[in-house]
Amino acid sequence: MPLVPFPSSVVDIARRVRSGEAGPLAAARQSLAAIAREDARIQAWSHVLPAARLDAADPAGIAAGALAGVPIGIKDVIDVADMPTGFGAPALVPGAAAFDACAVGMLRAAGAVPVGKTVTAEFAFRTPGPTRNPHAPAHTPGGSSSGSAAAVAAGMVPAALGTQTGGSMIRPAAFCGVVGFKPSFGRVFRDGMKLTCESLDTIGWYTNGVEDAQAIADVLLGDAGPEGPGDRPPTIAVQLGNPRASLSAESRDEIARACAALRAHGVQCVPVEAERETALLLQAHDVIMHYEFARSLAPVAERRGEALSAALRQAVAHGLAIGAGQYREMRDAQASLRQGWRALYGGADAVLTPSTPGPAPRGLDHTGDASFNKIWSVLGWPCLHLPTAFNRAGLPLGMQLVGDWEGDRALLALGRKLHHLLIQQGE
């Protein structure tokens, strides 16, 4: 059965606070109560704001902003003032951050209330933290933004920040059954975030609906391009193939059902084959990610290697062995393919593609397959996961829409329109 979301949406919380119907800290208090009630089961939080500090907060700066009073979780690779940043590495004893990361500061200036730090895989890489999938605790919540997605899915917050290098935003959104938005690379300021891959890392967010994702985009993205196709029927390119992953039968059936629903409402769904480009992008992601990750984490591995997992140390060694020439070659491929949207997809308004090969797999020692995410991360295009249904075991199903480079607003507007259609069809 679907979980119960946070009692109010981002949009409703802010509206009620601005109108005076609710106090500026009322939703944050609800959030802390929900965390106290639910997190022993889910383990989505690495640090929670003490209630006494919330009581001491000045509500004057909260009540008028676009996100007035909205409680929000922050992935634990992003700084929040006076909270520790632990990077998902328990053996590294963190101190409290002196300042908010830029994105957190922007949210706070808009009236949002950071209520804690959410669990991340170790340095946003591969080794999972303790978080469990709220729908099925024996199944992975995905990673590396596991705590953020699970906290929204379990109704502890209406929104949370995460990050994506390969599939770390979209995969947890899919496994936990929430809306996940990864903006175009470079659209969100990353100051105050622990960068592991300079050319890939992107801050994104989780919500329960696309309208709420748009509200956060209004704060963090500002004017990010055109609003979408308007009243004309959109065209969607449908891309299912991936040389490294096989799509499960139930996920394939769900996308087929979605395409039928869209066509019934006048949306053109055009199959696209991009095997050569996909294979090249997957290769580029592996090289770029390991090369940059290794150089980012090498100083930590050198000084505190005993505090890191074997998998992370091996990834550093692997990345340091990649030559600069191979790295530059893959960066050139990245730049070339990033600009090839119109040629490859024939002017489609978005690409409809799997978020994951299937529903969340059983087991907590891994975070799932990111093959359907990596190509979009290396391109830097915006991605929006839309939860659409549940399988017979009660695990979420869905798919992602991928937008044009820097077409973030258009993607969100289109996703809001299409998600509504799909949810209606799926009920």
TrEMBL record:
<feature type="region of interest" description="Disordered">
    <location>
        <begin position="127"/>
        <end position="149"/>
    </location>
</feature>
<dbReference type="InterPro" id="IPR000120">
    <property type="entry name" value="Amidase"/>
</dbReference>
<feature type="compositionally biased region" description="Low complexity">
    <location>
        <begin position="136"/>
        <end position="149"/>
    </location>
</feature>
<dbReference type="InterPro" id="IPR036928">
    <property type="entry name" value="AS_sf"/>
</dbReference>
<dbReference type="Pfam" id="PF01425">
    <property type="entry name" value="Amidase"/>
</dbReference>
<dbReference type="InterPro" id="IPR023631">
    <property type="entry name" value="Amidase_dom"/>
</dbReference>
<feature type="domain" description="Amidase">
    <location>
        <begin position="29"/>
        <end position="412"/>
    </location>
</feature>
<protein>
    <submittedName>
        <fullName>Amidase</fullName>
    </submittedName>
</protein>
